[in-house]
Amino acid sequence: MSSPASSRNHSSQDQQPTHTSMGLIAFAWALVGVPLAYGLYNAVKAASALFGG
Amino acid sequence: MAVPSFLARERIVARPGFNRWLIPPAALAVHLCIGQAYATSVYKTALVEHFDSSLTAIGIIFSIAIVMLGLSAAVFGTWVDKNGPRAAMFTSAVFWVSGFLVGSLGIYTEQLWLLYLGYGFLGGIGLGIGYISPVSTLIKWFPDRPGLATGMAIMGFGGGALIASPLSRQLMNIYDPGYDGTAGTVPSGNAVALLFLTLGLVYLVFMMFGAFLVRVPAPDWRPDGFDPASVKKKALVTMENVSANNAIKTPQFWLLWTVLFCNVTAGIGILEQAAPMIQDFFRENGTSAVAAATAAGFVGLLSLFNMGGRFVWSSTSDYIGRKPIYMVYLGVGIVLYIVLATLGSTATWIFVVTAAIIISFYGGGFATVPAYLRDLFGTYQVGAIHGRLLTAWAAAGIAGPLIINGVLDARGTPGELVAGDYRPALFIMVALLGVGFVANLLIKPVAEKWWEPRATDVPTDAAPAERSTVR
């Protein structure tokens, strides 16, 4: 169980601010987005057989 | 159980200015990997031939994995909440990847028990810990949109199978050029062993990426412009916290368990039988009007709706509320199952559209439940509570196939069944959805006696006051 004191640890006001670069965000999303797009493409291709494609 | 300091929760508290949109890809990196569990059918036949075994004996591998998923999520949920997402994702990766490596060795040395131990037992533990690992973190980073956040992660579990199926076929084609992925060709056992080795290594990289990217918000962090009081105004949403041990003593937990069990059982009824079902529904004089390739396309379409439903419906629940969205899943689900049972065989489009929406509700039910738990029990130990709730999934994984297979076995022989043979099973699903609908209606706010004392919002009981190594 947390004590009130421990819940105040690491308050954001105690820390130096940081900046997340847009490049890192784009890289992270690309890393998961590209395989997902590959999977979606293949699923749509398979599903197209249902509509005579 | 202590964890090495580089994995500890207090090491990953985000500094002010950290962008929360890095958290969903971290969660997806794990869920996209463990979602492979739903792509095992691509090498099932190869394993049957390699081990000169039966479908049942090979199917046990998957069953062990799902049972271990439910058990490990329930048992390790509190550990996950206490030690944070990095420790959980790291541990999940170690178990999941070990499962593939041991499994690969089992296939290579033709020892089936190693596959049970590897992919089934070790991999199943990785599945359970991995599945719940990012959930409470996402809810804390997105207090304004918890449904959207958990929908994104749990959508990844559905997406994992979409990736692993074609990827596995392509890799097995490389390792065994005699296999081209078409019906009638079966990859060699060694190709499957190499596939396991490759997937294990790829998943290791991806899951570690997620583990080292993830951060937890500081206790006093709030999104810009977010007023917690605005959340409190919604029905059923609490600002209080309930521990996992107390949550399972409340009727709300067991009502929600029933809701999830009924929704998943009904969905599995279709998913389990998708390909033969569409052929059987349009069978006349012993011949189906639906070709095998078209049936495979139907399975692909269901996968898309399963994944899409997780994101779309869970996000929608942020606007209309968790209880109303489950009324849609279960209430509209009842209507759709009745349409499927009575009109499903009259036109292909009616069958396809009805089944696709039902499966989107199945996925939506999975993705929305963490946010429902957060509404009822707060964020304190929501991961652990979610882990315990997932035993409903394990139970549904047994009940769903038992119902559909039991009815169909009693009605005739596979390959000769027609639409009418499915009706008893479909009406059982209607009754189950009815039970789930009533259970959802009965859910009320959790009684005050279960609330934790204030200031238990973040389970940082292991965090010493002097630590300041935040990133």
UniProtKB/TrEMBL annotation, chain A:
Keywords annotated in UniProt: Membrane, Transmembrane, Transmembrane helix
Ranges annotated as spanning the membrane: 21-41
Record's keyword annotation contains Transmembrane helix: yes
Protein name: Uncharacterized protein
